[in-house]
Design a protein that fits this description.
Largest sheet of chain C: 2 strands, antiparallel
Order of helices and strands of chain A: HHHHHHHHHHHHHHHHHHHHHEEHEHH
Structural class of chain C: mainly alpha
Helix content of chain A: 55-70%
Number of domains of chain A: 2
Helix content of chain C: 40-55%
Largest sheet of chain A: 3 strands, mixed
Shape of chain C: elongated
Radius of gyration of chain C: 29 Å
Strand content of chain C: under 5%
Distance between the termini of chain A: 51 Å
Chains: A mainly alpha (537), B mainly alpha (366), C mainly alpha (190)
Largest interface: A-C, 60 and 51 residues
Number of domains of chain C: 2
Oligomer: heterotrimer
Number of helices of chain C: 7
Structural class of chain A: mainly alpha
Shape of chain A: globular
Order of helices and strands of chain C: HHHHHEEHH
Chain lengths: 537, 366, 190
């Protein structure tokens, strides 16, 4: 019978299914406090935004992304960007602010879609090297710590304040001098509980939950003893009116135009930060577990999700390396686990709304500070300090997050990344062995200044220099013009033409069927890497 | 075992640090409370003003000013001792923001110097007579930035920030305009005390909520209020040298005597920054309006509108600090300009005029 | 440095994809369609009203606006909208500040308006920021509103700048203007 066959199949797969569900539950429990904290402390939107990001965002990403390790979800840097961008525009938590947050997320999603549609743009994301990303992550870690200070102390945020780094000191002093002492107590207890539990390896994943539980218990005790009117500790608030789904419309009308135009740079920052983190997280994941996922697919799933999530009252999402690593360590690489985490979260929120309501904000702020501190990871920083160019790029990226705003930091990071890659190319290996000037690397307009200066000092020093460029794998027209000028002017001989097969000879000799179907070029264009043969290498 | 010791050490360190921070916080809170409870030493001008308005604790408050001018007895809610102290502190902050007249500037002025660039800026340079400027007949003057009238018409939409600005955030604007990058938290006593003083002024002068009064804010002067001979900063320079330089200094760095500011800096590191609405390039109507209605002290409303615009334009061309909005590069540029231009210009101008170099005036070495 | 020699003969090159490109594309489009369809269902078919960032109009606002001359501040505009939001918050608290109150439509005293009239709030506004001997400190209007949310509304304290607090202050200010209250105005015991 069909039903018994189905039942048999179900029970056959039950252990795996059970495992997936457990992993999903773990993931849900880990993600819930993060989602709430990010939306409330960093983004300035009510908690259901983060929760829906952790439910629908994760579901959409796991559906659209074929990678089995990908886990999207709310993200610190993106939430912080939303908060920083919108703080001058509207008072946080209000309806107007929420509308702008949705518009910001939608614009970011559309920019990400542009990065998917225009291939070279997406390809440029691969140029964002590790030092740039790690520098930004470290900077954002500090940023998270400083930004949570006022919420930690139960103080209002300074609206109308731009983000210079040094406001953090004033916030710290303000917390010491006028902060709500009860809030500070709750925050400190949360922090201590988190750190204590983190020291036990088996309970590391649950540290945040323990911390929140400790903070909530203490704040409930205070409220019971002194009354919530007197402690005035802010809490998450009543979520019971938030159901299964909460459709929303981003604000987009004439009267909102000045503000929407003002937040466009923020949308670009949001889009870029999301893409950087997704690409970098996937790259790290691939490195660690040895698989391969095309980052373009990740960009696609990110872009489509972020275009649709603003219509479901949700924060934008991007890949989270920490959560992906958690899933990997739990021994599971199944999309069912990740999708089930979203469903578990939905159930948790629907049934535990009353419990979530009383979680105090200072505890959330403490969690954010801890997450920020965890982002400043010496193990990740150390490798970059060993090579000077990497160290400089890392330092520049890190400092730009601290001293410029996030938009400036993203711009500096992008420029640095491209400059870094170009710097490598523009410095070929040139050596003078006897009277042979050997050039290894690229012979193009960018490297010519270095080559020419070495060449001229060589011909000054040595008679009858021979130029050997047989190991140059890329020569552009400017390089050819220089070579021709060298030939014509000083009559310096070149090394013998290459003997033996070279890559280009192979390409020209390859049979037509290998070239990937009708309509494609049969001869590769000079200077461009040959896409057809990528899979051969 | 060593990892266990390391972990224990980490936990103990964290607990100690948290405990230490908490104790420090409690101590600082206690300090603040003791300052709130301490008797307030009024500045001479504040003592005179608050005495004139009859500020005292009691069950009711009746404004002597209103009684004297209209004969009406308006009874308002009285102030407790703490309220009186708060208003007194607020008056002190407006009158002497930097605490030059205070025994312990940090304690008595809630550390305002943390938030203000330089040593000159004080609220009452613009909000003259401690926010309540009156003419010889005791009438509030138009465009005199009356604080009580500001409270009456507060919480309105502000087009520059694009927000509805509660009174407290409006005060924050002043810190933004002058600031060195630091701002007080909105719940800070500094803000609350000045709010309390403004509210007291509004009851002393009998302003009703939501009513407009001419003395509120600045009486802005657009170009249409002038003969439209062009806002000429060169003409402005000549006017400045003739009418303003003897108080504000030849390069507008202000004048100090006996540690007190006689005339504040209009340019340079002690002055307002490029994000202020006094900056002609940002808003061209506010500084001219201020100059015409409030300057020179004692001879208000004597300058024609065109001259006010010219002088304001000239002043805005003098080097001043950058605001937060301008970003770090412009800030660096402005710092360099403020350091380099004054001595250079002094040199070139004296060479041009063939005079001996002018005495260095105070305040520009900061 | 030289690339490896290509495989001999016509052996097909291994590819990652097992299916032809068009089928993958169709699958992807189907997934996108599914997701987009879900979003559209959420808006149109789920029965939940979509969130919009504007201020919704409650019955009674027009009359209130006329009675209290809110148009003095303009027919529309940021301030007037904030006052309208304040009106919604004061008289329909459980609906507009649902995050900060546990009261529902079924509770008897479920809004500020259940205990306070608009005049009460206006007088409270002009008499705020004073020392409260029972609490031993000065309490601002915002703090009073927060205490109300936390206590009598059986809810949670919002932050000071939250519109759930700010708009009540603006509402009180607009009513205070209509009543021509000055700072510290005392209620006449008529």
């Amino acid at each position: 019978m069909k039903s018994s066959a189905l039942a048999a199949k179900f029970w056959l797969h039950w252990p795996t299914l059970n495992g997936n569900l457990l992993v999903g539950l773990t993931l849900a429990l880990v993600t819930l406090p993060q989602a709430v904290a990010f939306s409330v402390t960093l983004a300035g939107v009510p908690p259901h935004f983060g929760i829906y990001a952790a439910i629908w965002g994760v579901l959409f990403c796991s559906l659209l992304n074929p990678s089995r390790v990908f886990h999207g979800g709310p993200n610190t840097a993106m939430s912080a960007t939303i908060g920083v961008t919108l703080l001058p525009v509207a008072p946080p938590f209000g309806a107007e602010y929420m509308g702008y947050a949705l518009t910001l997320a939608l614009m970011a999603g559309m920019i990400q879609l542009l990065f998917f549609i225009v291939r070279p743009l997406g390809r440029m994301l691969d140029l964002i090297s590790e030092p740039v990303i790690n520098g930004m992550i470290c900077g954002i870690g500090f940023f998270l710590i400083f930004r949570s200070l006022t919420t930690f102390g139960g103080l209002p945020l300074n609206t109308e304040v731009e983000w210079p780094l040094w406001i953090a000191w004033q916030s710290f002093l303000a917390v010491l001098e006028i902060g709500n002492l009860h809030a500070i107590e709750v925050g400190l207890i949360t922090l201590i509980a988190c750190v204590v539990v983190q020291q036990f390896d088996r309970l590391r994943n649950w540290a945040i939950l323990f911390g929140i539980a400790a903070g909530t218990l203490y704040s409930q005790y205070l409220n019971a003893r002194l009354g919530p009117q007197d402690t005035l500790i802010e809490q998450i608030g009543n979520l019971s009116s938030i159901g299964f789904v909460f459709p929303s419309l981003p604000s987009f009308n004439q009267e909102a135009m000045p503000d929407i135009i003002a937040i466009l740079p923020g949308a670009l920052t949001l889009a870029l930060l999301g893409l950087f983190q997704t690409v970098a997280a996937l790259r790290r994941m691939n490195r660690k577990i040895g698989g391969f996922t095309d980052s373009r697919k990740a960009i696609f799933s990110d872009a489509v999700s972020n275009c649709l999530l603003p219509f479901l009252s949700s924060l934008p999402t991007c890949a989270s390396f920490n959560r992906m690593w958690l899933v990997h360590k739990l021994g599971n690489h199944s999309r069912i686990a990740i999708a089930s985490s979203a469903l578990w979260l939905l159930l948790l929120v629907l049934f535990l709304a009353d419990l979530i309501a009383v979680i105090p904000m200072p505890a959330m702020a403490g969690i954010i500070m801890l997450l920020g501190a965890n982002m400043i990871n010496w193990e990740d920083i150390k490798p970059h300090l060993q090579s000077r160019p990497e160290a400089m790029v890392f330092a520049a990226s890190f400092l730009s997050v601290l001293f410029l705003d996030l938009f400036g930091a993203v711009l500096v990071g992008s420029v640095l990344a491209i400059a870094y890659s170009k710097w490598e190319q523009a410095h070929p290996n040139i050596s003078l062995q006897g009277n042979v000037l050997k050039i290894r690397g690229n012979l193009y307009y960018g490297s010519l200044p270095v080559i020419e200066s070495t060449y001229h000092s060589a011909i000054a020093r040595v008679d009858d220099v021979i130029v050997d460029f047989s190991e140059c794998y890329y020569i552009d027209p400017e390089g050819i013009r220089w070579l021709a000028a060298v030939q014509a002017g000083t009559r310096v001989p070149f090394a013998d033409p290459r003997r033996g097969p070279t890559r280009r000879d192979h390409e020209r000799a390859a049979p037509p069927e290998r070239r990937g179907g009708a309509g494609r070029r049969t001869r590769p264009r000079r200077g461009r890497p040959d896409r057809r043969r990528r899979s051969d290498f | 075992m060593s990892t266990l010791t390391a972990k224990l050490a980490k936990i103990v360190l964290l607990v100690l640090a948290s405990g230490g921070l908490y104790l420090l916080a409690t101590h600082q809170h206690g300090q603040r409370e003791s300052i709130r409870q301490a008797a307030v030493a009024l500045t001479p001008d504040c003592a005179e003003k608050l005495g004139r308005y009859g500020l005292a604790s009691g069950e009711h408050y009746q404004s002597p000013y209103v009684l004297q001018r209209t004969g009406a007895r308006i009874t308002a809610r009285g102030y407790s001792d703490e309220d009186v102290r708060v208003i007194q502190r607020g008056c002190n902050i407006v009158d002497d923001t930097q605490g030059h007249l205070a025994g312990d500037a940090d304690r008595e002025r809630w550390n305002t110097t943390r938030f203000i660039r330089g040593t000159h800026l004080s609220c009452d340079h613009c909000h003259q007579s401690i926010g309540d400027k009156q003419d010889a007949g005791g009438n509030p003057m138009k465009g005199s930035l009356n604080l009580g009238a500001s409270w009456a018409m507060a919480d309105m939409y502000d087009r520059f920030t694009g927000l509805l600005l509660p009174f407290e955030l409006r005060q924050m604007q002043c810190y933004i305009n002058s600031s060195n990058g630091y701002k007080p938290n909105i719940a800070d006593d500094v803000i609350r005390d000045v709010t309390a003083y403004s509210r007291f002024l509004s009851v002393a002068l009998d302003y009703r909520i939501g009513n407009h009064h001419d003395e509120q804010g600045v009486d802005e002067i657009p170009a249409s209020a002038t003969p439209k001979q062009g806002d000429d900063h060169v003409r402005g320079e000549a006017l400045y040298k003739q009418k303003c330089a003897h108080c504000h200094g030849p390069q507008a760095f202000g004048l100090e005597a006996d540690g007190r500011v006689v005339a504040p800096a209009l340019a340079g590191p002690n002055s307002w920054n490029m994000q202020s609405r006094n900056y002609f390039y940002y808003v061209s109507t506010i500084l001219p309006g201020f100059i015409c209605r409030n300057m020179p002290p004692g001879q208000e409303n004597t300058l024609p509108n065109e001259e006010c615009r010219d002088i304001a334009y000239y002043i805005s061309n003098l080097p001043r600090p950058a605001g937060d909005r301008q970003g770090p590069l412009v800030a660096l540029r402005q710092q360099m300009l403020m350091k380099v231009l004054p001595p250079l210009l002094r040199l070139t101008e004296t060479v041009r005029n063939g005079e001996a170099p002018v005495e260095r005036e105070s305040g520009h070495d900061r | 440095m030289n690339p490896p020699a290509p495989p001999e003969g016509d052996a097909p090159v291994e590819r990652n994809r097992e299916q032809p490109a068009s089928s993958t594309r169709i699958k992807t489009l189907a997934k996108v369609g599914l997701v987009a369809g879900f979003v559209i269902w959420a808006h149109l078919g789920s029965g939940v009203e979509a969130f919009r960032s504007g201020v919704s109009s409650e019955p009674g606002w027009k009359k209130f606006s006329a009675d209290y001359e809110i148009e003095h501040f303009g027919k529309d505009g940021q301030f007037v909208r904030a006052v309208q939001n304040g009106y919604n918050l004061v008289f329909h608290t459980h609906k507009y500040a649902s995050r900060f109150t546990r009261k529902t439509a079924l509770d008897r005293a479920n809004s500020c308006g259940s205990c306070h009239t608009a005049e009460d709030l206006a007088y409270a506004f002009v008499n705020s920021d004073r020392f409260d001997p029972r609490l031993g400190m000065r309490v601002s209007f915002e703090d009073r509103v927060r205490r109300c949310y936390a206590g009598p509304m059986d809810g949670f304290a919002p932050t000071i700048y939250d519109p759930a607090v700010r708009d009540i202050r603006l509402f009180a200010r607009a009513v205070a203007h209509h009543l021509q209250l000055g700072e510290g105005a005392l209620r006449r015991k008529d």
